[in-house]
Structure formats: structure tokens, C-alpha cells
Write a structure and sequence with these properties.
The structure is a single chain. The protein has an eight-stranded mixed beta sheet with strand order 4-3-2-7-10-11-1-12. It has a two-stranded antiparallel ribbon with strand order 5-6. It is built from 17 helices and 16 strands. With 403 residues, the chain is an alpha/beta fold. The longest helix has 15 residues. 36% of the residues lie in helices and 20% in strands. The protein starts with a strand and ends in a 6-residue tail after the last helix. It binds iron/sulfur cluster (2 copies). The site of one iron/sulfur cluster (SF4) has 14 residues, from α15. The site of one iron/sulfur cluster (SF4) has 13 residues, from α16.
Length: 403
């Protein structure tokens, strides 16, 4: 069986003289950078733009790192206008044109776009995609550029994360979930295994063709935000497989794949990149690259799960931040069908006691996976928000009218 190649190169600085040849060596080792990038294709650069902070905080992918990648793409395509940078950041900053402008200015993306001629995404609309193999969800809303682009280049940061311990290639794709939907998912999938399966589902549905990780200035400790500590880790990693890349990055941080909750779930799903033995590391040995005193987060999710008040608050938030399924009785075929009832993993759809032909939901049991909506042959199940949810999502979330 062919192994998945992960290329790792040491690089100590974002200075062009050092970064440019290092990135070349890293990408050339993959042997297919030029095959992936084609003139005429629309390319999404998906950095980690978690929150509006300057690059020195190590919270976001460094603009000089992104710029170096962009210039390599433009050298091939000569079409900067076909490249767009997009991400949906923490919802404390609304996913609106104004919020995005602040994000781009703080993280250095605005000046980067001025220098290179690439686009910045200001469209806060979203599109629904289906995930046939999804374990946690069967359909999901993603930001527009994730579906309108031909190629996705994932450019995550080498960081720790209080919830998933590390945040790298797989977790970075959570940023294609628009605005207020993100905390909604955190409340729906409070259980860490389910949340990791959601991340895996997203990566299966929207598979980046290439991932290039900025590990020059990494983050250790209680990441991924201000609680983390920037640390010079002097690395660039690249692969066509997010799971394989994360596997190497996690092991470099001192976290074996079985202890990494995302990779552990990916292993259960038999994803090739989650198994270290399926990975070919180019550019050094793991023992040489490993950072033996790297600080992982001290506050782990298992401890949070024991916190009763946190759990109650999450339950309350779950109902307002997540859409719920609703049946349009005029479209529903009733008892001649019942596909939704058969497929529901929670047995949350029942026959109405008033009219046996009608179906009703038990919203306490419902995990908002929307398998029912996916299975409905009549398109009779819609996603609705509560009144409060609607207000929050429209004020701080995404442009619901722009489907
Ligand atoms: S009713 Fe069942 S299938 Fe539909 S969203 Fe809820 S849990 Fe999923
Ligand atoms: S799958 Fe659709 S049409 Fe069939 S019973 Fe459910 S809501 Fe009605």
C-alpha cells in the first residue's frame, strides 16, 4: 500500500530569503504541488484566522507565510484574481462584512491582499452540502468560497487547543462553518468524541487538496487563543492528507495519535492518514523533530465535562444556537413513507397521538444531525431557528438570505 507523504522542513524565520527556499523544498518533496495548481482554477486559501490578533501572538497563520504560498501559486497561474482568502472567525466578531474587515486588518490579510492582488472574502452567505458518509451530520452549511472554489489550500497553524489538545489541519477546516453556527455545533456536540467526528465529517465533505502548516512561530500551552504561549518551533509541514499531516504534527508536539482525540476517532473510522505506519515522513525522523519540552494544554475537555453548570448552560445554548428540524405537513407523505423515522439515530421522531399520519419530534432527544432531512424524498423537513436563535444568528451570524 502506498504511504501518504508528509514533508517537514526546518525554517527559523518568515524572512523571504529563508522562507521562500524552505517552502520550495517542503513542497517539492510532495512532488505534486504543480499538478494541483492549474491556471483557470478558483483557489481558496483557508488560513487559521481564529480571531483579530496580530501575527506575533501566534493565534493566526502568519501573513508572510500565506504571501509566500500565494506568490508560488501566482507564478504558476498568473491569476491573482482567482485566489480568495476566507475564514469564519470566533463569533465574538460577527461574520459580516464589517466583522471580516476588522479580522483582515488585524491579522495582516488586508495589506497582504493589497500586495498580491488576491481577493478577500466578504460574502457572508453560505451553502448547504451533503455528507453521505457523515457520522455526526449528513448535511451542513459552509461558507460560500468553500463550495465555489475548485481547489482548497488549507494553511493551518501549529498550535495547541484546550478542547482537541492540538489544532492543525483537520480542526482548521471547522472555520468553513459560518459565524454563529460554530458555537451551535459546540453545544450540539458537547461530547468530545462526537465533536471530533463532526470535524472528520467536514474534512471528508470538503477535502482540501493540499495542506501547508505554519509551524515557524507555533503555540504551546492553553491554546488556541490568548491563553496559549507563542513558541518558536521553526517548522513547515505539508501534505495532501490532513490526517497524516496532523499525525506527524501531533507526534512532534509529544502527543501520540492514540492520545489525540481527532486522530483516535479517525482511526476508529479506519482513515488511512490516522495510522502513523501509513505515513512516509520526508525531511527528518520523528525522534529528531520531536519537541520534548513542548507544553500541551493543562485544561482538558474531560475535566470540563464534569462541570455541572457548564453542561446546563450548554444545553440551554444548544436550543437557541442550533436549527431544529420541522416537517411541512403539506409536503409529507405520512405513513406511506416514514423514511425520516426509520433513519433517525436518536428515535426522536414519533407518531402523533392525535393523528397517526402525522409525525412529531422529541427535541430533547434530537441531536440536530439532519439525517431525517437528508432522507426525506419530498424535501418536507426544513431547518428552523427559534425566535431568539433567529435574532442571534442574523445579528451575529451569517447572511441567511444569501443561500
Ligand atoms: S430528528 Fe433524528 S434524524 Fe432528525 S435531526 Fe433530530 S436526531 Fe437527527
Ligand atoms: S421522510 Fe419526509 S415525506 Fe417521508 S414521512 Fe418523513 S417527512 Fe414525511
Amino acid at each position: 500500500m502506498d504511504k501518504i507523504r508528509v514533508s517537514v522542513i526546518k525554517c527559523e524565520s518568515y524572512d523571504k530569503e529563508m522562507l521562500d527556499p524552505a517552502l520550495d523544498m517542503c513542497l517539492n518533496a510532495l512532488d505534486n504541488f504543480k499538478d494541483i495548481i492549474k491556471p483557470g482554477k478558483k483557489i481558496l486559501i483557508k488560513p487559521n484566522l481564529l480571531s483579530p490578533h496580530e501575527p506575533e501572538k501566534a493565534i493566526t497563520t502568519h501573513p508572510l507565510f500565506i504571501e509566500c504560498i500565494i506568490k508560488k501559486i501566482i507564478n504558476i497561474t498568473k491569476q491573482p484574481e482567482n485566489i480568495i482568502i476566507a475564514d469564519s472567525c470566533v463569533p465574538t466578531l460577527p461574520y459580516t462584512a464589517t466583522g471580516l474587515k476588522k479580522l483582515y486588518e488585524a491579522t495582516g490579510m488586508s495589506t497582504l491582499a493589497d500586495r498580491t492582488g488576491v481577493m478577500l472574502n466578504y460574502d457572508n452567505g453560505y451553502s448547504k452540502i451533503s455528507i453521505a458518509e457523515g457520522v455526526s451530520v449528513k448535511q451542513i452549511d459552509v461558507i460560500k468560497p468553500a463550495v465555489t472554489s475548485d481547489i482548497i489550500i488549507n494553511v493551518p497553524k501549529f498550535k495547541t487547543h484546550n478542547l482537541t489538545i492540538t489544532t492543525g489541519a483537520v480542526k482548521n477546516m471547522f472555520g468553513i462553518i459560518p459565524g454563529m453556527s460554530k458555537p451551535g455545533f459546540h453545544t450540539r456536540f458537547f461530547d468530545i468524541e462526537m465533536f471530533c467526528n463532526l470535524l472528520i465529517d467536514i474534512n471528508i465533505a470538503v477535502k482540501p487538496q493540499l495542506t501547508i502548516m505554519d509551524g515557524i512561530l507555533g503555540m504551546e500551552g492553553n491554546g488556541p487563543g490568548r491563553g496559549g504561549i507563542p513558541r518558536k518551533t521553526n517548522l513547515i509541514l505539508a501534505s495532501t492528507d490532513c490526517f497524516a499531516l496532523d499525525n506527524i504534527a501531533s507526534n512532534i508536539m509529544g502527543l501520540a495519535e492514540d492520545k489525540n482525540p481527532i486522530l483516535a476517532e479517525a482511526k476508529k473510522r479506519n482513515l488511512k492518514g490516522a495510522f502513523l505506519e501509513n505515513t512516509e515522513l520526508v525531511g527528518g525522523s520523528l525522534s529528531d523533530l520531536k519537541i520534548y519540552d513542548f507544553m500541551l494544554p493543562s485544561v482538558l475537555r474531560k475535566e470540563m465535562n464534569k462541570n455541572f453548570i457548564t453542561r446546563i448552560l450548554m444545553r440551554v445554548a444548544k436550543d437557541s444556537l442550533n436549527p431544529y428540524p420541522k416537517i411541512n405537513k403539506k409536503k409529507c407523505r405520512g405513513k406511506s413513507c416514514k423514511n425520516c423515522q426509520k433513519i433517525c439515530p436518536q428515535s426522536a421522531i414519533m407518531n402523533s397521538k392525535i393523528n397517526r399520519n402525522d409525525l412529531i419530534f422529541d427535541y430533547k432527544k434530537c441531536i440536530r444531525c439532519f439525517c431525517c432531512s437528508e432522507a426525506c424524498p419530498e424535501g418536507a423537513i426544513s431547518n428552523e431557528y427559534t425566535l431568539i436563535g433567529n435574532l442571534i444568528v442574523n445579528r451575529y451570524g451569517f447572511g441567511r438570505s444569501k443561500k
